[in-house]
Protein: Polysaccharide biosynthesis protein
Organism: Sphingobium fuliginis
Amino acid sequence: MPPGSALARMEGSARILALIKLANVGLTLIWGFAVTYVFVRALPLREFQSFLLLVAFGNFTISAEFGLTSIVYARLRRHWLGNLGSGNLGSGNLGPANLGPGQDGAGGFRLEEMGVLFLFLGLLIVGGLAILSVSLAAGGLRTGMPLLFLLFFLSACLNLPALLAKRALAAVDGNFLWEALDCLRRVMTIALLLFILQGLDPRVSVALQLCVSAAVIGYAIALVHRRLGMEARHWLSFRVGGGHVRRHYLRDIGASAAFTISEILAYNAPYFTIAAATHDARPMLIFDFFFKMSRSLSMLVRATVEAALPRITRAFHAGDGVRLRQLMVRALGAALFFAVAASAALLLLGEWLFAKLFDGRAAIDRIDLLLIGGALLALALICVSVYVQGALGRFTLLLGRSLPFLAGSLLSVPLARIFAPERFDLLFLILYTLTLFAAAFIHGLSLRQLMGKRA
């Protein structure tokens, strides 16, 4: 990118990045709600409950990249900023000639790492697909449309290579390129999804969405290839790249993997514990509604934080405590603004939205909406902490902060079932919300410590 080009200016503007990221978040949210809106109408209720379990399993699989993409971002970002500071970047390409310590095995970033990591994610997708196939064949996940479930799962899992491409581009100041591509992908997949309501076979719709995603993600990977100045041999040097990953990633991978597993369980386990506790659809639908609200908020917060990450990481690595605190206060302010707005919107429109979303299959109470609104406030602070500290490579610290949340999440349904069997769904929501507040307090202390270190 020539320094004075329009694209370079957009990449360098935090406001433009925030706008394009928020636009992408909006499209992603529309897609997520459209999935529920369409499939709750296209499938029988019992089949839709199985579909929700499929979505939860997909969340587990996608999250099982163990934070590798965050590790890559932290390592590549640190290296990119180091080269910027030393003036080694030249035209802006991070090619073999200017990788510096990353090419001499001294622990810096190596181009061969990318091929190894994409291979790992590919194997993860194949493994998840195999587990799902066995589960469908054995009747563990009951459905009359196994092909639809397999295609939807595979389509969702394409977010793994998409996430790695996104993080790699973001690390080398390629945020805008990815977000524009992903907006295009979302518009096309939303249209294909809504065609189901017009009579398009769901399997055909999902298959076409799969093709669109594969094409856009393939182009994004090509951008990574060109931006990093890679050659074909870098993608296939699994021995060299694997050795480098083994020598320099294991500590981060261990902490990040444990943290990721903890987060996966904490956010998704209630799907399975509720399914084990009752066959009543209402508790599952209420938690799915909360999950969608929390995911929506986390995506909004992530968009604003990621738009500020280039400046936050620069301030942190430069030891500029004043600037770091200023940027962190802005990020926290934006996150809490979104949380308050979402909570207020839920109180006004939550009952209507719940009924519309789930086609009147269940009703949600005012107290449920108040609890969800409160939980969103706590979640906002947690998200800022996780996104910033993950970008800085502080995975061991994040792991310690996540364990209380995991314990509360796993115990919420069993405790609610024991102490309030008639309204265990309400007590579960109370316990889950209290767990989020406790986790937010712990993360708040962590952020205060982070800013204090750069004072």
